[in-house]
Amino acid sequence: MAPFSVLKIGRIIPLVVGLILAYHVVMQVEGGSAATSVRLTEEEELELERQLNILNKPPIKTMHTRRGVIYDCIEFYKQPAFDHPLLKNHTILKKDEATPTTTLHTTLTSEIEGCPEGTVPIRRTTKEDLIRAKYLSAPSNAPGDHEYRAGISLQIQGERFFGTHGIANVWQPKVNPDQFTAAETAIRAGHIEEANEIRFGWMVYPGLYGDNLTSMFGYWTGDGSHQTGCYNTLCPGFVQVDPKYPIDMYFVDISVTGGTQYALRLEISMERETGHWWLTLEEKIKIGYWPSNLFKLLGLGADYIYWGGRVKSGKDGITPVMASGNLPDRWPDTTGYYAELQYKKNDDTMMIPSNEVQFIVDCKESYNALWDNEHTILHFGGPGGGNCA
Fold first, then answer.
1. How many Cα atoms occupy the beta-carbon half-sphere of 20 within 13 Å?
2. ∠ CA(326), CA(332), CA(336), 5° rounding?
């Protein structure tokens, strides 16, 4: 089926930021279609092994997808989230504990059979994952490597938002190894430099996943991406709850231009009883949540919402395809879209954004966004290929 601060890739895996590249052990790190030679000392090799032992918990069960991704079923309270110092004594409400997912009629297809009761699927971190994170965090003097968006934002003076809902169609754009392309829903509280922020959507990101598949992603930060936050479960934070659908799973079904559209129905909303921000897919699949302990500002609600596309150019400055690669033309089967957009007010009523929305198109030479107020559909996308810097 369905700017904020530029992310500092070095924050993806804080445990390995201190590694320094040297010239002993040589590894080929795949980043999509290209490989990067990285040289490591024996000490760095040992440090990587130590970090892998911390990140990869002893599994109750291991599952392999057809495309080579490995998921381990980890006991609920031993998942990476609970390594966070603020979550040491964290408890989850009984009604929200991980239990086998009932069969739902949904185009969200998982290639894993699901974890036993009391365990959750966590993608296994590899040595190559850690090295890619280090490689991508290295300083660069290249003129490119910028992020651009095409979509709409919602910000109403004096208003707080406690949730957002929408349906996004799913594409598989081609990208170079040092680019990414995504469609996202994002909420934010506070000034951009110290923002509490949550993002969720789909993306093609060889530097993060090591492949060119379209995968779900979640990102959080409690301080504008300075010292906290990461993607998915690559650092303590997001609590995985569903035993079958992990937050970083890849999509099996992809939309076709002028043909079948596969879309993802998603909702991010605050649970008033706890202050946790829950991710729910297809109305009934509660993937997991970002605990209230991670945020100082989002406890009062969000003051900013963004819907649309986001891309990162390569170090040569060239931008990738966004969504289908076509500029929006109000036909939902030819470009990216977010449909049935809604936001939740303080009294938990769902509202439809209308004339309050503001367009954000950072690179009009390559991308665009159109808002159909009558049908509450955002159309976005573009071919990329230019240098927008």
1. 2
2. 50
CA–CA separation, 217 and 331 (whole Å):
26
DSSP 73-124: EEEGGGSGGGGSGGGTT----GGGS--PPPP---S---SS--PPTTEEEEEP
Question: Residue 123: is it exposed, middle or buried by C-beta count within 10 angstroms (0-12/13-18/19+)?
Answer: buried
Tokens of 311: 């891309």
Q: Which amino acid is at 98?
A: A
- Write the pLDDT tens digit of every residue in 81-131: 998 888 877 777 645 554 444 333 345 677 888 999 999 999 999 988 888
Dist. CA 111–CA 210, nearest whole Å: 18
- For the chain, how far is it from start to end, CA to CA, in angstroms? 34
- DSSP state string for 169-209: E-------TT-EEEEEEEEEES-GGG-EEEEEEEEE-HHHH
Using one digit for the tens of pLDDT, what is the confidence trace for 271-309?
999 999 999 999 999 999 999 999 999 999 999 999 999
The helix or strand, by DSSP H or E, that contains position 54, with its residue range, turns out to be helix 42-55
Instruction: Report phi then psi at 313, rounded to 5.
Output: -75, 165
Query: CA 113, CA 244: separation in Å to the nearest integer?
Result: 7
Three-class DSSP category at 328: coil
Has residue 241 got a pLDDT over 60? Answer: yes
Q: Stretch 122-145: mean pLDDT, rounded?
A: 70
The two structure tokens encoding residue 200: 């969720």
| 62/297 Cα distance (integer angstroms) | 38
Token digits of residue 8: 């500092």
Is 277:297 a contact under the CB 8 Å cutoff? no
Q: Are strands 163-169 and 263-270 parallel, antiparallel or unpaired?
A: antiparallel
C-alpha span between 30 and 69 (Å, rounded): 14
